[in-house]
């Protein structure tokens, strides 16, 4: 290793910060001896010659631990400890009483009532003293590290919140643009296309009519995409208003609405009774409409289609589900299911925009819950959700 490399290594090696220990004793000889005992710990030992001096030191800084002599003139150790505890910043600072009195002469009960963590009696055994103090030094360092991480986390949360606020504003602006600047011309185009088909159908040859029909269908799909985008944007704004929701009743209403819209379909639907959840009722209904509608669509080729809305308890966790016996999916692609505009089946097989399950995931996330799916090709699918 070259000299430059050695210098670089020295510069980049982190230096562990020292913590402060307060040593309070009116006898300078004892302070000198105790300071020598604590020297191998490699920390800063701050001396105080009296109780008032100790209180002045505590006004300047915080300490990992306080070594406090019991017998001092004027203000003894117990009185000093009482005043230390009255200060909010030092009310939890560990105090070890150091005394030349024997156990019989020391009011240890009073000391512990004042927040002492330990007593050390003379003659002091250096190894024991260092062991006791080092415990609180390491604890203090760990607390400081936690405070540092908490400060970093709070700053990171603030930065992320600011960034998300800016992103939401941009999304709102984009949503407005989609609604007015893009969707309106598209609707006008679709209207003109429809008029051409109706007014000049007899004058157009079959190829021209086919082209116009394709253009109209494409513009309708594009309008559906815009509607889906707006739905997703709306779900990211506004407050969540939780209340106890009757999920069973909501699911039953959703099923009846879907039946009315597709009277030609014969689907056996079972909705379990007694299902409730703390959720925003508007969003919970949208979630159920998307999941039941999804199951209804993907059982379209089943001669005996079946959809089940229920709940189950697993490891103390109540999870609700919508299960069907439709086409199912390959679990390899499960991670794509809840993405916006992600489709596992072609438009010709099962029409749709690909926004329903993304809406479900967003609603569940806004409630602080989770959603996932299980299935197999040709064996149906089950979509779970927890608010």
Report on the structure:
- There is one protein chain.
- With 387 residues, this protein is of the alpha/beta class.
- The protein folds into 3 domains: 16-124, Rossmann fold (3-Layer(aba) Sandwich); 166-236; 243-386, Heat Shock Protein 90, CATH 3.30.565.10.
- The chain has helices at residues 3-12, 28-38, 51-60, 77-86, 108-113, 126-199, 206-236, 247-261, 281-298, 356-366; strands at residues 20-24, 44-48, 65-69, 95-99, 116-121, 243-246, 267-271, 276-279, 305-314, 317-324, 370-375, 381-386.
- Helix 3 (51-60) packs parallel to helix 4 (77-86) and helix 9 (281-298) runs antiparallel to helix 10.
Quick tags:
single chain, 387 residues, 3 domains, 5-stranded mixed β-sheet, 18% strand, disordered N terminus
- Percent range of helical residues: 40-55%
Number of strands: 12
Straight-line N-to-C gap: 59 Å
- Low confidence ranges: 1-14
- Quote the average pLDDT: 83
Q: What is the topology, as strand order, of the major beta sheet?
A: 2-1-3-4-5
Number of helices: 10
Number of domains: 3
Q: Compute the gyration radius: what is it? A: 36 Å
Tell me the quaternary state: single chain
Order of helices and strands: HEHEHEHEHEHHEHEEHEEHEE
Shape: elongated
Assign the CATH superfamily of the largest domain.
Answer: Histidine kinase-like ATPase, C-terminal domain
CATH domain class of the largest domain: Alpha Beta
CATH topology of the largest domain: Heat Shock Protein 90
Sheet-strand content, in percent, reads 15-25%
The CATH architecture term of the largest domain is 2-Layer Sandwich
The description of the largest β-sheet is: 5 strands, parallel
């Amino acid at each position: 290793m070259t000299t430059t490399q050695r210098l670089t290594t020295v510069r980049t090696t982190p230096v562990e910060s020292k913590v402060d220990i307060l040593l309070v004793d009116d006898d300078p000889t004892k302070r000198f001896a105790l300071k020598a005992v604590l020297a191998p710990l490699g920390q800063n030992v701050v001396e105080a010659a009296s109780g008032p001096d100790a209180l002045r030191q505590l006004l300047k800084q915080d300490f990992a631990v306080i070594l406090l002599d019991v017998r001092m003139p004027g203000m003894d150790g117990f009185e000093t400890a009482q005043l230390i505890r009255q200060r909010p910043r030092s009310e939890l600072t560990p105090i070890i009483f150091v005394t030349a009195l024997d156990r019989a002469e020391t009011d240890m009960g009073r000391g512990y009532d004042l927040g002492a963590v330990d007593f050390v009696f003379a003659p002091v055994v250096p190894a024991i003293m260092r062991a006791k103090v080092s415990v609180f030094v390491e604890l203090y360092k760990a607390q400081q590290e936690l405070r540092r991480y908490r400060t970093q986390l709070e700053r990171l949360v603030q930065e992320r919140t600011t960034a998300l606020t800016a992103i939401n504003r941009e999304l709102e602006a984009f949503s407005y643009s989609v609604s007015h600047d893009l969707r309106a011309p598209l609707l006008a185009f679709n209207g003109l296309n429809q008029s051409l088909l109706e007014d000049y159908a007899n004058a157009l040859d079959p190829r021209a009519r086919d082209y116009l029909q394709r253009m109209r269908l494409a513009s309708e799909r594009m309008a559906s995409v815009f509607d889906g985008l707006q739905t997703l944007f709306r779900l990211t704004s506004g407050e969540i208003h939780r209340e106890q929701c009757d999920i069973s009743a909501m699911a039953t209403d959703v099923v009846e609405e879907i039946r009315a819209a597709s009277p030609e379909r014969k689907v056996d639907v079972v909705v379990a009774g007694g299902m409730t959840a703390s959720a925003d009722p508007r969003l919970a209904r949208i979630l159920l409409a998307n999941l039941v509608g999804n199951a209804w669509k993907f059982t379209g080729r089943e001669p005996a289609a079946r959809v089940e809305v229920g709940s189950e308890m697993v490891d103390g966790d109540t999870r609700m589900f919508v299960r069907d016996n439709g086409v199912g999916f390959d679990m390899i692609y499960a991670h794509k299911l809840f993405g916006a505009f992600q489709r596992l089946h072609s438009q010709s097989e099962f029409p749709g925009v690909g926004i329903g399950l993304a809406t479900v995931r967003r609603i569940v996330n806004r409630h602080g819950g989770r959603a996932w799916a299980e299935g197999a090709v040709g064996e149906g699918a089950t979509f779970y959700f927890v608010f």
